[in-house]
Amino acid sequence: AAPKAPDVFPIISGCRHPKDNSPVVLACLITGYHPMSVTVTWYMGTQSQPQRTFPEIQRRDSYYMTSSQLSTPLQQWRQGEYKCVVQHTASKSRKEIVRWPGR
């Protein structure tokens, strides 16, 4: 099969307004790509951020999916510009999520 670039979707924690001291969890859902693997980097402004990227799994249709998440204090979330960057070398694609629900 020819290489296929991933689709990338933003996810944000919480249905209620978070309390001032609670963290906000941002996530990127990365799905529908072939072959594995992708590289995910998170930024606040120009600084890369620690993150958690989950193991890739193969879907029933043979394409792959994963997700990556970043936890940040609410105050920083309000002030910072957050970005999830997904690179898929096989398809030469680079996708960025810079808009988050509720911003």
Automatic annotation (TrEMBL):
Lineage of origin: Eukaryota, Metazoa, Chordata, Craniata, Vertebrata
SUPFAM superfamilies: Immunoglobulin (SSF48726)
Coiled-coil portions: none
UniProt KW Lyase keyword: no
Domain Ig-like residue range list: 6-98
Keyword terms, alphabetized: Disulfide bond, Immunoglobulin domain
Protein name, entry field: Ig-like domain-containing protein
Pfam family, one: C1-set
Keyword Disulfide bond tagged: yes
Protein source organism: Gorilla gorilla gorilla
